[in-house]
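User: structure tokens for this one?
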Amino acid sequence: MGGNFSQDMTATSRSNIPNIAGELAQRETKWIKENLSPSKDQLKAIKQLNTEYGNQQQSAIKDIIGTSGKPTPESRKQIEDMMLMLNEEKEDKLKGILTPEQWSLYQSKKPEMQKAVGGWRPPAPKGTPTQSDSTGAPKQ
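Assistant:
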């Protein structure tokens, strides 16, 4: 019985971590709907994709932070690395859902989306052109 109590305490502590990734997934889906005019089928696939990756990210955050509920500098780096990997995977799949025109628009408006949605976002996946000036700084 003692083992079950310990497992219950871990689950309770882990559940106290806010579902930030899930909230960001919902806001991103809403932003895409409003800015890229996806078809009904595209929107359904985008919602599924964002929900799936939001759940994966939230679970990974909980696993990395553990029962403390507070990230350490080391765990922050782990979370950042994990978010980068999962967001690259998600964007590869998103590219397959969107039309080439929608994908181009998404890429051009990505900084706007990041500000509107909030949260941390990694840079564009490797090989994805970004708008920048000759210094490499993003254009405003």
